[in-house]
Structures are given as C-alpha cells and as structure tokens.
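Hi all, long-time lurker, first post. I run a small reading group and we've been trying to get comfortable going from sequence to structure in the token notation. Rather than ask abstract questions, I figured I'd post a concrete chain and ask someone more experienced to write out its structure so we can walk through it together at our next meeting. Sequence below, copied exactly:
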Amino acid sequence: MSSNENVHILLVEDEKTLSDVIALNLRMEDYHVQIANDGNEALQAIRNQIFDLILLDIMLPHVNGFDILKEVRATNQVTSVLIISAKDATTDRIQGLKLGADDYLTKPFDLEELMLRVKALLRRGSTSSISDVYEFGSNSINFKTFEARNQHDTIQLTKREADLLKLLVDKEGEVVSRQEILKKVWGYDVLPNTRTIDNFILAFRKYFEKDPKQPEYFHSVWGVGYRFTA
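-- Answer (accepted) --
Happy to help. Here is the structure in token form:
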C-alpha cells in the first residue's frame, strides 16, 4: 500500500476542466481527493472531515476562498492550505498568507510545480528530526497537538507558530536566516513585513522566557536571523 493512500486532499475549484486535471494527477499519486465546486460545498466538506491538505481557489460561487480559509483556521490549525488563484496581486498573496495559508500559487501554473508544492507541504507537516514532544527548561511543546506548556499556563499554538518553533528547535544553536524561515515556514520568498517574524519571536519570549527582556532561549541575531538555544 502506498503511504499516499492515507492522505486526504480537498480540492476547491469551480473550473471543472481544471479540477478534473488536478484531481487526476493527484489520484495518479494515490492521494484520496474530494472535489468541492463552490464555497458552500467546501464549507460542508471541512465541517465534516479533517483533511491533510486543502487546495483552495479564491474566486468561488457563494463563498469566496478567503472566507473559507478564515473558517478553516478558526477551528483547525493542522491542515495545510495551498491557495491556487488567478488573483496574482501582492496584496492578495499577503492577505492569503496572513489569514493562514501555507503557500500561494497563481494561475496559470505548471502541473509539475503544483505537485512539488503539494509534496513539500505534506512533507513539512509529517517530518522532523525532533520528536512530537520537546522539553526545554520548564517548558514543553507538543508538535502534534500544537499545545505548549510553561511553568504556569497551557498555550494553544497556531500552526505557523508550531512550524516556526519546530524549525528553530530542529536547528538548535544555529542561526536561521529570515529567508530560510520564510521559505520553510511561510512558503514565501519575499518578506511582506520586516516585523512579521520579529513578532513571532516576541510571542515565543512571552510564552517561554522567565524574563522576555533578557531571553535565555530565543535570540535575535542582528541583520541575520534568529537562534534557539536550550
């Protein structure tokens, strides 16, 4: 049995010819694919099942893709979302990524590139050299449930927070550049806002440091990137 047979993908696309072609290529790789042809069908599908990956068009009948993405992220930080859209303005890409999309591919696109992005997103969610639960100091992070604990509180992490933490922990002691973080965590090679990653690091210090102003674990390396030390 192929390991892909356990992967469930929701394809949300109202262009039938395109959805048929994408679904065919995914099924040839043994993925389970469910198709939603409009926003209402997509919402019904995500309310009934947790998918490993959602391929999401933006311009849809009834409910647009951004509103669907908001609903997904309101209750589910686990599922990866790849936006596939003819809306190619930078503002649209940034909006999608801010709402919680993991990657953004503009139409028209090469099918091989789509398949590579699908595999990369699925791999990102399933592999790491660290275990599901990581402990440092009086803190712990469960990368499977996105739940973290410090000395006093339990914290529910977002998927992006967990992905960034996983990257930093996996490269403990190394300086990780902004460019590497954006490519591996955001799936995006242009920084939309110079404060974006800084704000995540500030949040981590608030969660895990005894004194956020004198961090023991999460360090900024001026002009280069960030380093985690346990």
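A couple of things your group might point at:
The chain has two domains: 3-126, 133-228.
Helices lie at 16-28, 39-48, 65-75, 90-98, 111-126, 159-170, 178-186, 196-208.
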